[in-house]
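note to self: dont lose this again. the chain is below, predicted strucutre after it. 247 aa total, dont forget to put it in the shared folder this time
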Amino acid sequence: MLIAKTPKNTRIYAIGDIHGMAEKLSNLHAQIQTDAANFNGQKILIHMGDYIDRGRQSKQVLEILSTLNTQPNWQNWRIVNILGNHEFGCLTFIKNPEKLKEWVSTWGGETMLQSYGIPVAHSASATKMRDMLLYKMPEHHLIFLQNLPIYHTEEDYAFVHAGVKKGIPLAKQNNWDMLFIREDDDVSPFTPEVSHELPYRIVYGHRPKQEPLVTPDRICIDTGAYKLGGKLTAVALEDDTTRFLQA
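---
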C-alpha cells in the first residue's frame, strides 16, 4: 500500500470547495499563515475548485484568489488554483448563453450574477445576461477562470476537483470525469471501499461531507462551506502526515 509523502522539506495546504464564502476563505487563509509561520521549507497552497455559485460572495472570492500572489504574505508561496465544475459551468455559459437556465437553476449561478450586481431578470435574454456579466466582471477575474488547470501533482499526491476513474493514468483521464464524477455514479468505482489503482493519494472535493473523508489512497475535503453550519476545510500535508484546519 502506498504511504504517500510530499516532496522533501515541503508543506502543502489544500482548500476544499469555497462556493462564494469569502469570509470563511479569508479566515482559513489567516489560519494557514499562522500555522505555517515557523516552517522554513517550500510552502504550497492549492485551491481545489468550485470557487463560485451557491454562496453570495463569488465576486469577492475571485478577487481574493486572482490577486493572492501579489499580496505580501503570500509572495513566497507557490499557489495553484484548480478548475471545478462550477467554474466550467460559468465558462460554458459565457461561451454559450443558452446554458443560462441550466447554470442558474441547477448550479446556483444566480448568486454568482448577484455578486456582480446583476439581478436574474427572467425577461432578459440569455445573451444580454452574459453580456452584462462580461461588462461587470473585471478582466483579471475572467483570465483567472480561463487559465485553471484540471489537476496538479506533487510527489505522491494528486489534486483534482471531483475524482478519477479506476486504473487510468492522470494524463489520460477524461476531463469531464475529473470535474463531475461522483461516488454514486454507476460508472464510478471512486468509493472509499475501492482502490483507484493509481500511484497517488488523491485529494479532491465536489461531494460535501460533514467531515473530511480520509483513507490511505484519498482525502475528500469538501465539507459544505456554503451550507448552514458548513465548514471550509484545508488539509495540511507534510512528509507522510495529515492535519486539518477549518473555518
